[in-house]
Write a structure and sequence with these properties.
GO terms for molecular function: GMP kinase activity. Essential for recycling GMP and indirectly, cGMP. The longest helix has 16 residues. The strands form three sheets. A five-stranded parallel sheet has the order 4-9-3-10-11, sandwiched between helices. The chain has a four-stranded mixed sheet with strand order 6-5-8-7. A two-stranded antiparallel sheet has the order 1-2. About 25% of the residues are buried. The protein is of the alpha/beta class. The radius of gyration is 19 Å and the shape is globular. It has a domain of about 150 residues: Rossmann fold, CATH 3.40.50. Bound molecules: adenosine-5'-triphosphate (ATP) and ligand LQESDW3C. The site of the ligand Nc1nc2c(ncn2[C@@H]2O[C@H](COP(=O)(O)O)[C@@H](O)[C@H]2O)c(=O)[nH]1 has 17 residues, from strand 7, strand 8 and helix 4.
Length: about 220
């Protein structure tokens, strides 16, 4: 079914769900933007990754991440359960594929907070459904300040993430859109605008031929 009468009585055009990926150097603000966007967009579902990294204070298992040990992570790879997976900052991270495909099949959009390695893998497997956004910090000093003020990682971890920020940022040109996160509300507005425009792309509205045919026949 690609077009059907909705509660309004008008024909509604069905749309294939899309995958909205946010990447950035650690601390630039992906998680903050994601949480606010999810609160504004009921048709958007967060992909919950599996990771071998320890849980941070305030994080909830099953909501922020599925926290698994390296053995379980290896078993998940062997069972081909990941859409993508990568080693990031000495820990393993991966996107379980089943919930993503279930959401997409239902016409829901899926939001991912993954690094450039994962984005490259998703692009190889599902380029047509991917919309990628790279979030840049306003400055290196501000990035370090944000990592410190989050106060969830040791000084050693913060230093390690800052050391890898330049390498991470070298991948910006592989992304469809770039948002510089000066102000959180402005960044959320910009990512939301990207999502809105991408949803309206002709090729994502799979019911359009049937809908326009109906219009031309006077429905
Ligand atoms: N525009 C902003 N202005 C000031 N502070 C911000 C802004 N955006 C995010 N922050 C703060 O910066 C810190 C890091 O943000 P966040 O955890 O969202 O980053 P992240 O990119 O998801 O990091 P990671 O990759 O490590 O998960 C948080 O304390 C957050 O509140
Ligand atoms: N390739 C993947 N990268 C992921 C995934 N989940 C998170 N990430 C990225 O890891 C770093 C660190 O995250 P943190 O929560 O430990 O601060 C960050 O860049 C995330 O985007 C994933 O499933 N695949």
């Amino acid at each position: 079914m690609t077009a059907s009468a909705g509660s309004s009585g008008f024909i509604e055009v069905k749309r294939r769900g899309l995958m909205l990926v946010l990447s950035s150097p650690s601390g630039a603000g992906k998680t903050t933007i994601s949480r606010k966007l999810l609160g504004l967009e009921p048709n958007l579902t967060m992909s919950v990754s599996a990771t071998t990294r320890p849980k941070r204070p305030g994080e909830t298992a099953g909501t922020d991440y599925h926290f698994v040990d390296p053995t379980e992570f290896g078993l998940m790879i062997n069972r081909n359960e990941f859409l993508e997976h990568a080693k990031v900052f000495d820990n393993y991270y991966g996107t379980p594929k089943a919930p993503v495909f279930e959401a997409l099949r239902g016409g829901r959009d899926v939001l991912f907070d993954i690094d450039w390695q994962g984005t490259q893998q998703v692009a190889q497997n599902a380029r047509d459904d991917l919309v990628s956004v790279f979030i840049l910090p306003p400055s290196t000093r501000e990035l370090e300040q944000r990592l410190k003020s989050r106060a969830q990682d040791s000084a050693e971890v913060v230093a390690g993430r800052m050391a890898k920020a330049a390498d991470e940022m070298s991948h910006w040109a592989e992304y469809d859109y770039i948002v510089v996160n000066h102000n959180i509300e402005e960044s959320v507005t910009q990512v939301r605008a990207i999502l809105t425009a991408e949803r309206l792309k002709r090729q994502r509205q799979v019911g359009l031929p049937e809908f326009v045919k109906g219009l031309r026949e006077g429905q």
